[in-house]
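dumping this here before i forget
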Amino acid sequence: MRVLIVEDEPLIAMDLEDLVLEASNADCVWARDVAGGLMQVARGVDFALLDFDLGGQTSLPVALRLQAQSIPFCFVSGSLSDVPLSLRAVPSIAKPFRPADIRRLLAVA
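structure:
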């Protein structure tokens, strides 16, 4: 499994990567902005963890691309109230997240 993390804060991205590697036998890739996220989706991913607010931009284009390609994803964000209504059914975990919540999510990914 290849997991994409789209997160603009490097320390949070590293924490998420550690949790992904600990919880699964996944290959983990990280992007800090929309362009990088879209590039990684084009290269192929099986699941994604998206921060919605990427410091001046949102991960909405990445979420829509994942949705169009039927690739499962989850928002891991402190800005969940900003997620459009059309994407509110997508699983989400509020920051600050608990490691157990991420592990539970990955167990069913």
